[in-house]
């Protein structure tokens, strides 16, 4: 069911500083910031030859990333995103197997404009998983 790793997401308190560190210190190509109000975040993608790193900053006080940063003020890994061929088929198979899909269970448009779902971290050994339709 799982395809390639699409990205690893890192929550950051200061998106400009994180972007500069990846761009200027590590020499990576970095996208422009993109606000995603439906997810409560502003994101930047660090482009790598084999995948991407997504830097997440809260967009407002009710952002799930704001809550994450309250517990982890220095930031840190937030989730890993895997590609799937058919997100509805993947969701249905996972629910049948007992996995919990966060939210209302319906895919939402992610940063790449493709449908995404998140799976409860308690079902996957403490790791929040995002699925993105390939």
UniProtKB/TrEMBL annotation:
Gene Ontology molecular functions: metal ion binding; methylmalonyl-CoA epimerase activity
- Name of the top EC class for this enzyme: isomerase
Q: Per the record, a Pfam family?
A: Glyoxalase_4
Domain (VOC): give its ranges.
4-134
- Gene Ontology annotations of biological process type: L-methylmalonyl-CoA metabolic process
The record's EC number reads 5.1.99.1
Q: Which UniProt keywords apply?
A: Cobalt, Isomerase, Metal-binding
Q: Which branch of life, at top level?
A: Bacteria
Keyword Thylakoid belongs to the record = no
For the keyword Metal-binding, the answer is: yes
Matching entries from PROSITE patterns are given as: VOC
What chemistry does it catalyse, as a reaction equation?
(R)-methylmalonyl-CoA = (S)-methylmalonyl-CoA
Task: Tell me which family the UniProt entry assigns to this protein.
Answer: Belongs to the methylmalonyl-CoA epimerase family.
Q: What is this protein called?
A: methylmalonyl-CoA epimerase
């Amino acid at each position: 069911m799982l395809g390639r790793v699409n990205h690893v997401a890192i929550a950051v308190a200061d998106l400009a500083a994180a972007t500069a560190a990846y761009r200027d210190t590590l020499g990576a190509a970095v996208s422009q910031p993109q606000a995603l109000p439906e997810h409560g975040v502003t994101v930047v993608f660090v482009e790598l030859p084999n995948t991407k790193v997504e830097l997440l900053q809260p967009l407002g006080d009710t952002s799930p990333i704001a809550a994450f940063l309250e517990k982890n003020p220095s930031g840190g890994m937030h989730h890993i995103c895997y590609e799937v061929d058919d997100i509805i088929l993947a969701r249905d198979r996972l629910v049948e197997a007992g996995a919990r899909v966060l939210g209302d269970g319906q895919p939402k448009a992610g940063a790449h404009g493709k449908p995404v779902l998140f799976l409860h971290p308690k079902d996957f050994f403490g790791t929040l998983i995002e699925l993105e339709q390939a």
